[in-house]
Input
Amino acid sequence: MSRSDRSTRAMHQALPPALREAVDDFAEHLSRVRNRSTHTVRAYVTDLVSLFDHAVRMGCVDLAELDLSVLRSWLARLRTTGAARTSLARRAASARAFCAWAHRAGLLSADVGAALASPRAHRELPSVLRADQAAALVDGPTRRVTPTDNPPAADLPNTHGAPTNPARTGRAAGATSGEAAVPLRDRVLLELLYATGVRVSEACGLDVGDVDHGRRVIRVLGKGGRERSVPYGVPAQRALDDWLHRGRPAMVGTHSGDALLLGARGGRLNPTTARQIVGAYAEAAGLPRTSPHGLRHSAATHLLEGGADLRAVQELLGHSSLASTQIYTHVSVERLRAAYRQAHPRA
Output
């Protein structure tokens, strides 16, 4: 448990029983009814505990005493302690969501958070790779797939390549070795992230049965439990075929289950490890620091630059709001401006 988590827990336990119960009930509502992730629920709880800790300091010991002045005072205190605009915007959103729920549940006589304004978060344009850079990244593992290449070890990224012992998995003699299976796993991970633009958690959550080879689509379970189908191309299909026929059987273990992507010990690939894999191959290719989310940004930008419809990209990425997708149009415009400034004689 991190220091911030311990601090939040201590403040939670110090709250008056009524406020502590309200936090717990809202967390259960988010988890069971809204189907929010554990990470999202934890973020909401952290914000609410901070709010109620401030409210208690102002003399508000009962939920019915919570009003707009308390909410505004809380945000003002956060601002004076150096909280970023994005943090203030998120915490204000947490307060509004809680107050709306508490009003519907009859815990508040009015939705006091509805009038709470918050600083508009400055939204930076996501950094994206050029198409040739993305191709260089995705093709990185092919340097490790062919044993005859034998590149120097220093040239290869360390992507947790010690998989399950073949003797434990019952792998047949002559099959792909565990060491050779790692680049096949890395290759299919990179291909899927760039070809589909899925989130790293979505990629790691894929099961073998989620791949429709005939239609070349994967079934993805996104945020809020929303399911969508995302297409992928021929290169990703080839990577999937190699992985499923030669790679996965060499890494599969007793804890593999139906997981499509496997880690070193044969269990489902962890998103943290997937991030390390992407970063290692980007560094080995001499590319800017890149994450799975950077590949997602790149995929969306390249789709729009290639003429894809904004609504289609929204569906592919699993955005609930078109506003989340529209940021990629700004990326394309910025690239156009840069090209204009560089090429036009009167720019």
Q: What stands out?
A: The beta strands are 211-212, 217-221, 227-231. The longest helix spans residues 322-343.
